[in-house]
């Protein structure tokens, strides 16, 4: 059996916004971005959505890039909580399969995939947003590698050596699914099924490397 020291439990991002008012502003900003698009929503639009004057809004966030960084920090916190049952499970791979299916549906029901597609595109031309997006992906990859280490009874370093590409592929597939256009439900469902099959195959490869007796 793997040692309890094989992995470390994920924890919330150290500088993520916890203040209730900030959280309310971010909820309003996410909604405004979803309605008007990332580039289409002005700081005035965001302030209005939050029920604040522009001047007061700037006291909390100086730019849209700062808002995106805060949204990503919150999403990292949510993802950390999602991984807790995986680390607590006697079968991390099976629990991960369940979590992935839940997240695919959840992301698409939230219908904010278009927003994250815009943000991802913006990250290519705005380094500060690119850094925040990169932090999210590397954090999720690291959580996956910790889960793989526990499942296979190997060290985190061994997991990173063996499974870095597996973890990156899963992140890429889940992210792509979240950004999938909503227009054709049949096509979307078929694509989801294909994505899940590939993820299952990837997890099967990881599980087959287990050294547990």
TrEMBL record:
Listed InterPro entries: Homeodomain-like_sf, HTH-type_TetR-like_transc_reg, HTH_TetR
Pfam families (UniProt xref): TetR_N (PF00440)
Keywords from the named record: DNA-binding, Transcription, Transcription regulation
DNA-binding feature ranges: 42-61
Transcription regulation among keywords: yes
Residues covered by the HTH tetR-type domain: 19-79
Name of the featured protein: TetR/AcrR family transcriptional regulator
Organism expressing this protein natively: Cypionkella sinensis
């Amino acid at each position: 059996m793997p040692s309890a020291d094989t992995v470390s439990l994920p924890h919330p991002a150290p500088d993520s916004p916890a203040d209730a008012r900030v959280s309310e502003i971010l909820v309003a900003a996410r909604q405004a971005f979803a309605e008007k698009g990332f580039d289409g929503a002005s700081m005035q639009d965001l302030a209005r959505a939050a029920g604040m004057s522009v001047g007061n809004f700037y006291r909390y966030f100086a730019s849209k890039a700062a808002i995106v960084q805060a949204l990503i920090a919150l999403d990292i916190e949510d993802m950390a909580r999602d991984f807790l049952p995986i680390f607590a499970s006697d079968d991390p791979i099976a629990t991960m399969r369940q979590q992935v299916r839940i997240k695919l549906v959840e992301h698409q029901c939230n219908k904010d995939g278009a927003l994250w597609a815009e943000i991802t595109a913006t990250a290519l031309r705005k380094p500060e947003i690119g850094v925040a997006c990169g932090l999210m992906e590397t954090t999720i990859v690291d959580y996956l590698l910790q889960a793989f280490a526990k499942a296979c009874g190997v060290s985190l370093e061994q997991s990173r050596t063996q499974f870095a590409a597996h973890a990156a592929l899963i992140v890429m597939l889940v992210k792509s699914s979240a950004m999938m256009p909503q227009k054709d439900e049949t096509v979307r469902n078929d694509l989801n099924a294909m994505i899940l099959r590939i993820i299952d195959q990837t997890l099967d490869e990881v599980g087959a490397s287990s050294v547990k007796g």
